[in-house]
Amino acid sequence: MAGKSDTPILVPMEMEVFWQEMRQLIRAELEQIIAAGKSAELSRRASKETTAFQQKPLYDMQETRQLFGNISRTTIYDWVKCGKLKPKKLKGKIFFLWCDIEKLINGL
């Protein structure tokens, strides 16, 4: 393979040096691809690994108010109006997702 080809390659270096550099470049590229694939695989695995909920997924109005120190219903409705909380209605009762509540808590 190295230097024994019938087809001439026009590069300003010896054939053996050329092939050594090509191998090094290919190895470096493969290492980057493998490293990127491993990090993507690890993050994908980490997102799938949920052994149990750390928090309840849904909170009703009373529980949500208690999380914020017994704030008024009016305040909750104001947050809904301005988009800080997104209500979910189940069987006529209003619930809020923990992820939305957590964003609001971290934003305060």
Question: Can you offer a commentary on this structure?
Answer:
It is a single chain. This protein has helices spanning about 15-50, 60-65, 75-80, 100-105, and strands at about 60, 85-90, 95. It has two domains: about 1-50; about 60-105. With about 110 residues, the chain is mostly helical. It contains four helices and three strands; from the N terminus they run αβααββα. About 55% of the residues lie in helices and about 10% in strands. The longest helix has about 35 residues, at about 15-50.
- Cross-sheet strand order for the largest sheet: 1-3-2
Query: Helix count, per DSSP?
Result: 4
Fraction in helix? 55-70%
Strand elements, count: 3
As for the number of domains, it is 2
Our estimate of the beta-strand percent is: 5-15%
SSE pattern: HEHHEEH
Shape, per Cα inertia axes: rod-shaped
What structural class results from the helix and strand content? mainly alpha
Cα-to-Cα separation, first versus last residue = 66 Å
Give the radius of gyration: 29 Å
Q: What about the largest sheet?
A: 3 strands, antiparallel
* Average of per-residue pLDDT values: 80
Low-pLDDT segments: none
